[in-house]
């Protein structure tokens, strides 16, 4: 019988690939997404499609309100930075960072793991193309796992971050090998009301670079034409 695992699923290319890896490793995937006060819900539609396409045994969308605290362009009306060069993208913590978001998401996943019999949590964080987000760094993931083992009954819990040392091109190649349809993923921080990517925010820039390095067009862009 397949072991259960909790998989954090944002609707983007990283978390989709992470879900595919969990399935390929034989886990029964319980996908968790969050309606957290983000500026658009397009990513949740993508997450729903991804969960179905990749065979998650269930997909739950949890309602929380990080917009109450603000502090991020993703949970407020502040402008999303666009047209930034590499030094700007890689330097410092950008305004698109949502304070403590991964800590909160992982905590929900931990609570669900504890009651569902899961001993594994998958998260699609990436330390190579992480845009300066502190909660994507390997020491944070290791520290959360240690705290989780101390603070719950899950003394053998493993927080799995299989994409942590991959760049975007490597993520794309891995996802393609596992049958991920990147055409149904959503990455953009500031899409149009119909879901069309802006092509200029940091997330779009990193995504476009990844597909360019692989040498193929972005299937999501083709789907939007």
List keywords for this structure.
225 residues; 8 helices; alpha/beta; 5-stranded parallel sheet
Walk me through the structure.
This protein is of the alpha/beta class and 225 residues long. The chain has one domain: Rossmann fold. It has eight helices and five strands, in the order E-H-E-H-E-H-H-E-H-E-H-H-H. It has helices at 13-24, 42-53, 86-90, 101-116, 138-151, 168-177, 202-214, 219-224; strands at 4-8, 28-35, 58-63, 120-122, 158-160. It has a five-stranded parallel sheet with strand order 3-2-1-4-5, with helices on both faces. Helix 1 (13-24) packs across helix 6 (168-177) and helix 6 (168-177) packs across helix 7 (202-214). The longest helix has 16 residues, at 101-116. The protein is globular, with a radius of gyration of 16 Å. The mean pLDDT is 93.
How is the topology of this model organized?
Blueprint: E1 4-8, H1 13-24, E2 28-35, H2 42-53, E3 58-63, H3 86-90, H4 101-116, E4 120-122, H5 138-151, E5 158-160, H6 168-177, H7 202-214, H8 219-224
Parallel strand pairs: 1-2, 1-4, 2-3, 4-5
Mean pLDDT: 93
| Helix count, DSSP H or I runs of 4 or more residues | 8
CATH topology name: Rossmann fold
The helicity comes to 25-40%
What is the H/E order? Answer: EHEHEHHEHEHHH
> Which second-level CATH architecture applies?
3-Layer(aba) Sandwich
Relevant CATH superfamily: HUPs
CATH class: Alpha Beta
How many structurally independent domains? 1
Summarize the structure.
The protein is α/β, with parallel strands linked by helices. It contains eight helices and five strands.
């Amino acid at each position: 019988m397949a072991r259960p695992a909790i998989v954090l699923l944002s609707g983007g290319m990283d978390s989709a690939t992470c879900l595919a890896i969990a399935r390929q490793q034989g886990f029964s995937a319980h996908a968790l997404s969050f309606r957290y006060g983000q500026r658009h819900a397009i990513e949740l539609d993508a997450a729903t499609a991804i969960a179905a396409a990749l065979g998650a045994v269930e997909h739950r969308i949890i309602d929380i309100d990080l917009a109450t605290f603000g502090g991020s362009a993703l949970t407020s009306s502040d402008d999303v930075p666009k047209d930034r060069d590499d030094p700007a993208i890689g330097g410092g913590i950008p305004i698109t960072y949502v304070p403590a978001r991964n800590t909160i998401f992982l905590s929900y996943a931990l609570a669900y793991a504890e009651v569902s019999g899961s001993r594994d949590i998958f998260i699609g964080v990436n330390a190579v193309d992480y845009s300066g987000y502190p909660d994507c760094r390997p020491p944070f993931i290791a520290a959360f796992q240690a705290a989780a083992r101390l603070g719950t009954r899950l003394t053998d819990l493993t927080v799995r971050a299989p994409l942590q040392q991959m760049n975007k091109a490597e993520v794309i190649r891995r996802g393609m090998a596992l049958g991920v349809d990147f055409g149904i993923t959503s990455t953009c921080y500031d899409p149009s009301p119909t879901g069309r990517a802006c092509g200029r925010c940091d997330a779009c820039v990193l995504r476009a670079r990844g597909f360019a390095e692989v040498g193929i067009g972005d299937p999501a862009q083709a789907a939007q034409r």
